[in-house]
Amino acid sequence: MKHRAVAIFLLATASISWGEATVLAPGYGELQYTAPAPGTYRLPPLGDAVDGRVLDASGKPMQLYDVLEDKLVLMGFIYTHCPDMNGCPLASYVMKQVQEKLVEDPKLKDDVVLISLSFDPELDTPDAMKKYSHHFKRKDFDWRFLTTASEADLQPILEGYGQFRAKYYDPDGDYSGSMSHILRVYLVDRNKHIRNIYSAGFLHADTATNDLKTLLMEEQN
């Protein structure tokens, strides 16, 4: 399958860069336990999803809230040249798997939007995000690849979501193109409340999809 081919390519790239095999996060494999069935558990609100100024893959300025609209949202912060297999590539890989599951479920397909938002506006231009999206996005699904016009636009968004990120600089003070960050993917309901935050150790397509189904069932009760 295409998403597995992308993961294998990224793994090969990472292994070449690091010179050793990488221990992959659980999200790359089969879930090692039986996930709770949708609707058998609750996801209490964890805070509010914040708004901010973003650019879509065509360079169009918009508000993040305009992308969230009134849909259920799975949103990950990434940068396209991240070398850590258990960082941004994991988020994109798992979200692609979620996309495949949702396309097969007409009850969810039109109720969910996926968002990949770059936290590197210097290198992740709208065109870079558009090219990156070709590895993951289906034409028949709503997955937005966003960036920001500047650090000034990005910082309030990062602070609002509690997303840590620190750039690495070379001895001359120039940005190296790499950064330290904590992987976080956010589940947001239609009322723009954060309902779950997935880290590398807990991000998996099966549990994320069940959480989306749980929110949909909650709305119907």
Q: Your description of this structure?
A:
The chain is of the alpha+beta class. The chain has seven helices and ten strands. It has helices at 2-18, 64-68, 88-103, 106-109, 126-133, 151-161, 205-220; strands at 47-48, 53-55, 61-63, 72-78, 112-118, 143-146, 165-169, 175-181, 185-188, 193-198. The chain has a six-stranded mixed beta sheet. A two-stranded antiparallel ribbon has the order 2-3. A two-stranded antiparallel sheet has the order 7-8. The longest helix has 17 residues, at 2-18. It is globular and about 55 Å long. The chain starts with a helix and ends with a helix.
Descriptive key words:
6-stranded mixed β-sheet; 10 strands; alpha+beta; globular; 221 residues
What's the number of extended β-strand segments? 10
User: Spans of 5+ residues with little confidence (pLDDT < 50)?
Assistant: 1-19
Radius of gyration: 17 Å
Question: Major sheet, described briefly?
Answer: 6 strands, mixed
What is the share of helical residues?
Answer: 25-40%
**Morphology:** globular
Please specify the SSE layout and strand pairing:
Layout: H1 2-18, E1 47-48, E2 53-55, E3 61-63, H2 64-68, E4 72-78, H3 88-103, H4 106-109, E5 112-118, H5 126-133, E6 143-146, H6 151-161, E7 165-169, E8 175-181, E9 185-188, E10 193-198, H7 205-220
Parallel strand pairs: 4-5, 5-6
Antiparallel strand pairs: 1-10, 2-3, 4-9, 7-8, 9-10
Helix pairs in contact: 1-3, 3-7
